[in-house]
Amino acid sequence: MNVKSLNTLLKTLGIPVAYRVFKTPQTLPYIVFFVDSTDNEFADNSVYKQVNSWQVELYCDTKNPPLERSLEAILPPYNKVESFIDTEQMFQIAYSFETYETEETNG
Asked: Residue 65, preceding bond cis, omega within 30 degrees?
């Protein structure tokens, strides 16, 4: 999975989606996503397996279980953390998961 394919997948939900940050203010709900880190595996002095740790963050002004279920249905296996941002008066539901790519799948 790469930025383009995840972006395309997330846009099927019909809400605004951006990599890391929007350039203009958005109305809720919206999604931002990004690669949080990598934990690559190496062989023959190069990256053999690229391991991306993704973060997908759903922001809503009210709890929205149907939207959460729709998002969860299209994500790979994930971990989930929910927070309420007092200063913004919004919910943040953060999903994290890893994807793996080897030279064979990249080539």
From this structure: no
Q: CB burial class (10 A; 0-12, 13-18, 19+) of residue 71?
A: buried
Residue 68 and residue 103: Cα distance in Å, rounded?
34
The yes or no reply on domain 3-99 and CATH 3.30.2000.30 is yes
Distances (CA, A) of 65 to 5, 41, 69, 70: 24, 37, 6, 9
pTM, to two decimals: 0.85
Distance CA 7, CA 16 (A): 10
Domain regions of the chain by residue span: 3-99
Maximum alpha-carbon separation in the chain? 50
Q: What is the pLDDT along the chain (107 residues), one digit of tens a residue?
A: 888 999 999 999 999 999 999 999 999 999 999 998 776 667 788 777 778 899 999 999 999 999 999 999 999 999 999 999 999 999 999 999 998 875 544 44
